Amino acid sequence: MSVLFVHSGEFAWGIEFTLGLVALGWIGAMVLGTVLVIMHVSPIRTVRVVAAGYIVVFRNIPIPVQMVLFIFGLPLLGIVFPLFTSAAIVLVTYHAAFVCETLRSGMNAVAVGELEASRSLGFGPFGTIRHLVLPQAFAAVVQPLGNVLILLVKNSSVAAIVGVAELTFVADKIAIEEVQAFAVLGGAAVAYVVVCLVLKRFVAFLEYGVVFSK
């Protein structure tokens, strides 16, 4: 276990990078996922088809494949991003599809009568979604969205395969240097569990607040 204390600074650096990826990935996925779900219920057929196509593509391609294609494919088109930025973008595009589907299931919580009342009050489609549908959808899927967040934490380790110095990359590097794979990767596993448990408690707190406010 002493190897963990010797390299505690590097571990802290890796955890910081992981948390940065998670924060950027989650904010981006929530924004893009919300846009996608609005597109998915749009009265314009073409917009709905675009949203549905995005979800089919990004949900069904494994995230390691998306990461490699993004990192090594875009430079062939003359588009180059820093590795950290590229990893964050892939996390956003992949998890936005899951956020969209989760929100879409939450929309089922809105009663038909409420939609009719909204129309009778003069709200258009956008006003109804903004003021009636989305607030109820978010409130109904706090826990499922929390599951997507925890999935994102675990998937952030995929950034290691393209050289982003997040927790898994740092742990793998130290394990090779010290020839102590079990102790070092075990320490990384404990760190992931702690991060996920903290986020789970935070999501439970949010869910309690939503239930209490109803």
Which features would summarize this protein structure in a list?
single chain; 214 residues; mainly alpha; 0% strand; flat
Q: What Rg, in angstroms, do the CA atoms define?
A: 20 Å
CATH fold type: MetI-like fold
Unreliable spans are none
Distance between the termini: 48 Å
Q: Approximately how much helix is present in the residues?
A: over 70%
- Total number of helices: 10
CATH C-level class: Mainly Alpha
The total of beta strands comes to 0
Query: Any idea what the CATH superfamily is called?
Result: MetI-like
How would you sum up the global shape?
flat
Strand content: under 5%
Second CATH tier, the architecture: Orthogonal Bundle
Question: Could you give the order of the helices and strands?
Answer: HHHHHHHHHH
Total count of domains = 1
Helix/strand-derived category reads: mainly alpha
Question: What is the mean pLDDT?
Answer: 91
Quaternary status of these chains? Answer: single chain
Largest sheet: none
